[in-house]
Amino acid sequence: xxxxxAAFNGKKANIGYILAGYPxxxxxxxxxxxxxxxxxxxxxxxxxxxxxxxDGKVIANAAFxxxxxxxxxxxxxxxLKEVKTKKALxxxxxxxxxxxxGEDRFLQDSKDCGISGILVPDMPFEESSKFAQKCExxxxxxxxxxxxTSTKRSKEILSKANGFIYAVGSLGVTGGEQSSIDRxxxxxxxx
Length: 191
Description:
The protein has 9 helices and 6 strands, in the order αβαβααβααβαβαβα. The protein has helices at residues 2-8, 25-33, 57-68, 73-80, 95-101, 103-112, 129-138, 154-159, 181-190, and strands spanning 15-19, 42-46, 88-92, 115-119, 141-146, 165-167. A 6-stranded parallel sheet has the order 1-2-3-4-5-6.
């Protein structure tokens, strides 16, 4: 979590995204090993999943190709063990992967690989308290998401925030219809 604080350091952070294993695991490792020479402050590392509910067409297609190439969570952990960066890394991962792998094993392996936070787009806030407690025990931030439709729940979500808040700017999947500018401004003001 300290790397996340350092990424923001009282300012806006420049956040990037890469889908692990696309176009290859070797490319992912090379990209992450070059982070310290980049302008990125933090990188979300997406874990490929066969049913990416929250992802739009581009990311979903990349995830399918990575899965077809045999990329799985074990292989992602193996390459992350070889990555050397001072920058914050945050997993973007669907809960079924965590559940299948085992929560404690997943969190321990994440910690061992230098993961500072986890975004779980398919885990509703109301069902996250036990997993959030486990994340805290391992020193990993469970990054909360707030969408334009979260206005009634925002205060409660913010009260449990850790790391940073992921403000979702579109309705539906990534790359979907963007909310109106006024609605986004209201959401940011609320946050």
